[in-house]
Structure formats: C-alpha cells, structure tokens
Write a structure and sequence with these properties.
Strand content: 15-25%
Number of helices: 20
Radius of gyration: 25 Å
CATH topology of the largest domain: D-amino Acid Aminotransferase, Chain A, domain 1
CATH superfamily of the largest domain: DNA ligase/mRNA capping enzyme
Largest sheet: 8 strands, mixed
Number of domains: 3
Bound molecules: adenosine-5'-triphosphate
CATH architecture of the largest domain: 2-Layer Sandwich
Number of strands: 22
Structural class: alpha+beta
C-alpha cells in the first residue's frame, strides 16, 4: 500500500471527531491489508513501531527533526525553528515548507513498508554517529514524500501522531473490517487484545482467519497481560453485599503493581500497570522470583512496596517512587529502599494458563507455586462472611501498613478478567469514610500562568478525566494547591512534550487555559467534594442537562502517576459513581438516618 493512502486517511481522521466515522475510515484502510503490511500500518497509525510494551523508541529529538526538515526543504534551520514555533507543529511546518520548495518530482512514491523499514532503522541507530544516521534517513524519507506525507512522517518521529486513534477505536475498526461487526465479535477481539496487549497480532490473526482463530492467542511469557482492575465501594457493608455475603479480603498494599513473567530459563521480566518493562528498576526481584517460583513458566501479579527488612514494616509508597528512573546508583538505592513483592494472583503456572479458574482456585495454585523468600511474599488474605470480621481485617490491614482492603469475589465466575474493571474486585480504602472517597487520577490538559509568587511559571493546571466511550478527555477541575516550589518549577519540563498550540481535538472543557497540553501527564489529586458545574465537561449531562462534574478544593497529593497513561486515568464514569456515592452518603435515606424516624 502507498503511504499516501495512509496519509490521506490520517488527514480525514484529523478532520473528524465522530468515532463512528473514524471507525469506518480505519476499517476501510485496514481491510485490503494482511500479514506484515497490516501489522505495520496498524502500529504506524498508533504512532508506534511495535506493541507499546516493547518500548521501542525512535530516539528523535525535536532538534534532530528540525534539522532534517531544514535539509529536505533547503531552508535554514533557524527559519524552520521560527516557523515551527509559530505554527506550534513541526509537522505542519514541514508540510508548508516542502510544499513551497522546488523539488524534483519524486519518482519513487513511498510504500507503507518503506516507511516502516526506515523508521525501524532510525529507531535501531545507536552509538557514535547515530544522530547523523537518523537525520540522513529522515531526509531521504522526506525527499520522497509529498507535503502531506511529510507532515505525518514528522509527527510520527516526534511522537505527536497519536491523537485520535485510540485502541478502542482500532478494535471497533478491526471488527468492522475483518469480522461481522457484532457485539459478540467485538468482545472476543477485545479479549484477545487484553491477553496479548498486541493489536498487530490480533489484527493479523483475525485477518488471516476469523473470530474463532483468535482463540489461538494465549498467554506468552514475556508478553504482558492487561491488568484486571477493581471497582470501589464506600462501606464494608456494600462491599460484602456486592460479593454475595462472602469474600476473600486482602491487605491493600500501597505500592506499584508488578506483573512478573518467569520463564523456565532466562531472566525474569517485570511489567508495570501500564505494561512498561520495569525489570531494570528492581534488579533484586528477578533472581529472587526465579527462586521463589517452584514451577515455571509462570506469570504472577503482586504489589511491590518498600519495607524495612529488619522490622518487616511496610514503608510509605513515596519511597518506592523514588526508584523510578534511577539508573546509575541502583545498587545504592536497593540498599537504601529495599522492596518486597506481595503476590496476589497467578495467570500461568507450570506453563498452564489458570486465569480462567475462579479466584479461590487461583489462590490455591499461587500458594502451591510460591516458596516465599525474603523479598517475595504472598498477600495476606482472609475469607470473611460478615461485616464484623471484615472490619477486624481492615484494622489489621491498616496496622500492617496497608491503605485499606481489596475484596475479591469467590463466586464461580470470578475468573481473572484481563483489562476489565468490575465488581469482582472491590477496593476499599480507609479514608473513604471521611470527606470525598478516593483520590482521582487526572490528566493535565492545560496550564494557567501563576501570579504573585508564582509569576513567570504555571500556577495551576486544568485536569481531565477520560471517557472511553467518547474517547475524549473531559475537564473536571483546576488545581493549584499541593505543588511546592520544586514541583512547580519542574512541571514545565514534565509537560513540555505534550504542549499544544491549539485545544487538542480529544479534550473537552468550557475553560480556556493559558496553555493547552495534549493528554499525557497523570497526577493524583484529592478534593473535598464533587459538584455540578457549568464549565467542566466530565460526565456532561449525566446528572443534569448541561452540567458536568467538578472537584472542589482540589489538591495535588505529590504523586505523579507515571505508571498510568492518559487513558488509564480515572474515567468520567468512575467520577460519576463517586459523585453518586457521595450524594447517597450526604443524604441518608429514612432507613439509614436515625434522626428521620
Ligand atoms: P486502578 O488500578 O484501579 O486504576 P489505582 O492504580 O489508582 O487504580 P488503587 O485505586 O489504589 O490503584 O487500587 C487498585 C490497585 O491496588 C491495584 O491495581 C493494585 O496495584 C493495588 N493492590 C494492592 N494490594 C492489592 C491486592 N491485594 N490485590 C489486588 N490489587 C492490589
């Protein structure tokens, strides 16, 4: 397929916000493709070269891309820089400059496969002279590209192409292109994606067979599974009721979720909640897991928390986040901030998939599988059948350093549901009992200039929640408190790569910040209560026509959720649930309110 066809579809995708139309456009694009070409077109359209978990990066900085555009268009680099600052998008600048430049007619139009191969080569270039190689490859590509193609090539290398085409839209498009478009097929396609985390693999399997062929996609050690997620409740009574009166309660450890892949031979690999490989961050866990797991290959999940190895006490989470991104002094950090992994689930044991078993059966397999070591333990668990016992366990959990309890359904249908949030797992945190239930993970979509002491930098940020159905980010609060000077000083750097001259197409807000940001950075905030708002767009109209939800008195907790991508942020639906639970608490029914009788 010609790359021009892809670029043409991107242009049309960009021009629409309607998800249905996006799906048609994508389905039309993908339908004629198969095998390698399908996979490559799909990854390119996601702004990727390989499934996200492989972490393949192009390693192209803005300056490098600017130089390539200058060389390809015959302009001065400084002029390219100025034009890009004006347009706010080097891709668009490339389109304009190449449109103006008098170039020889390209006699060799670009194919999708050429582009993909060149991008792989750009990603692979490393070491001495690699920057120059990357520039040269890019110049060659741009030399063969039409202005429109150049726009998307540049956006691709800068990592700014991803707007719009989200995973869920692609799953819809695959259903339309290669299956019957029914709900049933859509569920099976999504299930295959949840197990493999690889849209390319799902697409190629589907295109090469039919929906039934997806059953071939199973677990593979080294390929992360999208994690099962929990719903929340605000009372233990409600938790037990949801679970049918009987549940397994576990300590809710406050740390980093880790999915460990333990092969029969070779190194153990660890993945974060958002499926990034984090093996290098916890080098001490791999060998210890290899000893702890009796019968590999295995895939297990747990929460990694800092502990004091002398007293066995759990330490505050902030400690473990200090280990993120530390590469050089890891040996020292390992000593300073020792961690322990509390395992709570198993998906593959002795090479046999067990994710389809009910939770009690999985826990039994986990207990057989794991021989606890100093740094690898099992999550503390107790089966409870009444609220008194649940309260007792909660107290014990808090005393042991947990932040609450995780309740797990013991019903026969309690299989591990990859990628799904449901009431099979319910999180209950101690502080649900005061003020507004949970913390909220919001995506930064805007910044406001500070005043007074904060003049010259951002003083507050516009935050949004994610609506998967609409595939957009909806504002719910403007947060300024909770940032100390150091945090405020570093925010511009953290946000730089997401800056956008225009309101991003997938952001909805009635407020215009001084600076827009494409959804990327996730922050944890707390607040006093959720109210209705005429200017925020979260869950717009769900409670009252024209009103969205807003968080009052928001405060940044200091926790950057780098383990979450923007689509992993709190959803509009969750915010609505939190709003409803809060309303119910504030206005007890006659039954609950002793003062009413
Ligand atoms: P979520 O993962 O639900 O999107 P989150 O990342 O903000 O939300 P929490 O709301 O604190 O996390 O709760 C869910 C997380 O709790 C799980 O993803 C997991 O990392 C962690 N956790 C701690 N202890 C357990 C346990 N015993 N069983 C399952 N998960 C646990």
């Amino acid at each position: 397929m010609r790359f021009a066809e892809l670029a043409d579809v991107y242009a049309r995708l960009e021009a629409t916000k309607a998800r249905l139309e996006m799906r048609h456009l994508l389905a039309g694009l993908l339908r004629p493709l198969k095998g390698r070409e399908l996979e490559e077109a799909l990854y390119l359209s996601q702004g990727l070269l390989r499934p996200e978990y492989e972490g393949v990066e192009l390693g192209v900085a803005d300056s490098l891309a600017r130089r390539a555009v200058a060389l390809a268009s015959g302009e001065e680099e400084a002029a390219v820089g100025r034009a890009a600052r004006l347009s706010g998008d080097l891709g668009r600048t490339a389109e304009e400059l190449l449109g103006r430049a008098r170039r020889l007619a390209a006699d060799e139009p670009l194919d999708v496969r050429d582009v993909y191969a060149a991008m792989r080569a750009i990603a692979a270039a490393a070491g001495e002279g690699s920057q120059e190689q990357k520039v040269q490859r890019l110049v060659t590509l741009l030399g063969r590209a039409s202005p429109l193609e150049a726009k998307y090539l540049v956006r691709f290398v800068l990592g700014t192409l991803r707007v719009g085409v989200r995973e869920m839209t692609i799953l819809d498009a695959l259903n339309e292109a290669f299956a019957d478009g029914s709900k049933e097929s859509r569920l099976r396609i999504e299930a295959a994606f949840n197990l493999s985390s690889d849209l390319g693999l799902v697409a190629v399997t589907l295109a090469g067979g039919d929906v039934a062929a997806l059953a071939k996609i199973g677990l593979e050690v080294g390929r992360p599974v999208r994690p099962m997620l929990a719903e929340r409740e605000t009372t233990l009574e409600a938790v037990l009721e949801r679970m049918g009166g009987r549940a397994a309660l576990e300590i809710k450890y406050d740390g980093l979720r880790v999915q460990a892949h333990v092969p029969r031979d070779g190194p153990v690999r660890l993945f974060s909640r958002r499926l990034e490989e984090i093996s290098a961050q916890f080098p001490e866990l791999g060998p210890e897991l290899a000893r702890a797991i009796r019968s590999p290959p295995a895939i297990v999940e747990g929460e990694c928390v800092p502990v004091d190895l002398d007293t066995d006490e759990i330490q505050p989470f902030q400690d473990v986040s200090r280990r993120r991104g530390r590469k050089h002094d890891l040996a020292k950090v390992q000593e300073e901030i020792p961690v322990r992994l509390f395992l709570f689930d198993v998906l593959l044991a002795d090479g046999v998939p067990v994710y389809g078993l009910d939770f009690a059966a999985r826990r039994a397999r986990l207990e057989q599988l794991v021989r606890p070591t100093e740094r690898v333990h099992l999550a503390t668990q107790r089966i409870v059948e009444d609220v008194e016992a649940a309260k007792e366990f909660l107290d014990e959990s808090i005393a042991a350093g947990g932040e609450g309890v995780m309740a797990k359904s013991l019903k026969p249908e309690s299989a591990y549901r990859a990628g799904a949030r449901g009431y099979w797992w319910i999180k209950y945190k101690r502080d649900y009992t005061v003020g507004l239930a949970d913390s909220i993970d919001g995506v930064v979509v805007g910044g406001f200039h500070g005043r007074g002491r904060r003049a010259g930098r951002f003083g507050a940020f516009l935050l949004a929640v994610y609506d998967p159905a609409k595939d957009r980010f909806e504002s719910f609060t403007k947060v300024g408190s909770g940032f100390d000077d150091a945090a405020l000083a570093e925010m511009p750097h953290r946000l730089e790569r997401w800056a956008s001259e225009e309101p991003p197409a997938n952001v909805a807000s009635g407020i215009t910040p001084d600076r827009w940001f494409r959804p990327g950075l996730v922050l944890e905030v707390r607040g006093a209560e959720l109210t209705l708002s005429p200017v925020h767009r979260a869950a717009l109209g769900a409670v009252r026509a024209g009103a969205g939800l807003a968080l009052r008195f928001p405060r940044f907790t200091g926790r950057y959720r780098t383990d979450k991508g923007p689509t992993d942020a709190t959803t509009a639906h969750e915010l609505l649930e939190m709003y409803r639970k809060q309303v119910r608490q504030a206005a007890p029914t006659a039954d609950e309110d002793p003062g009413a009788s």
